[in-house]
Amino acid sequence: MYSPASAVPLIVPADIPVGARVTxxxxxxxxxxxxxxxxxxxxxxxxxxxxxxxIESGLEFVLSGEGSxxxxxxxxxxxxxxxAAAFAAAGLQVLPGLRLTAHNRIPHSRGMGSSAxxxxxxxxxxxxxxxxxxxxxxxxxxQVASDMEGHPDNVAPSLFGNASVSWGQPxxxxxxxxxxxxxxxxxVAVPDYEVSTKQARSLIPASVPHEEAAANSARAALLVRALxxxxxxxxxxxxDYLHQGYRVPAMMPSAALVAFLREEEIPxxxxxAGPTVLAFARSRDEIEVIRExxxxxxxxxxxxxxxxxxxxxxxxxxxxxxxxxTLV
Length: 328
Fold this sequence. Notes:
Number of strands: 11
Distance between the termini: 30 Å
Helix content: 25-40%
Structural class: alpha+beta
Largest sheet: 7 strands, mixed
Shape: globular
Order of helices and strands: EEEHEHHHEEEHHHHEEHEE
Strand content: 15-25%
């Protein structure tokens, strides 16, 4: 079981020499995957990159890409807070001077795990800056990152790659890695509107009928089999009873696209808390089928953002990341 370091510092900032630098690449992730609410996730081959350099003092930021204009440039920055948490877990209680250079590609508030990726990038980069004898294991990094995120469903795939099934409680999180069948290709459709995770979560009731919970547990179990060995089960395995239906009011265009794709026998779900839609191609040929279906949906979709502007969807076939966060 994970336990944080003692309040007595074991390391001091001087143990990380000025000029020390690491660069990490961290994948996006899609959580829930239909029935795997708050427990399943998939690492996507779409990456943020972060470089951290030890400087004499203070915090410096060189930020670009998705959301870079809106994030703070002080100690409240999510990556800085994540680094501080990892340092503290290893015994370094005082944050050293740091320069963060980040290029973000993962869109914010779209259901692709942008906050989890930032957390994983921060804890991993901090760990790599530490003297070797003080570094945390990836299992310990899972605890730090999951405690910050609140649950490990996005954190685990960004840390370990592949698909993951995660469970546990603060300080005692666990995750099982699930290698994905090579024929499965995730295709994301990212709309040009945002949904906050807090808003999406607020729509889910505190309890559901027992029969729905039982049905969902069966589909979640089947999903592990479908992802790892039997892609032909993906349509049945991605049926959800716990969250997607309740969240429709917050993302009606995305819910409509999921329904349209499923009518075309394409396994599709809301990615994470939305509004991105994740569809599973079961062969390379099926990628084009999904593209054409989304184009047809766009051509006839009456939904709009503000009553005038029609939605735009960015469609991206992606690889499944199999490594998780890595040093560049």
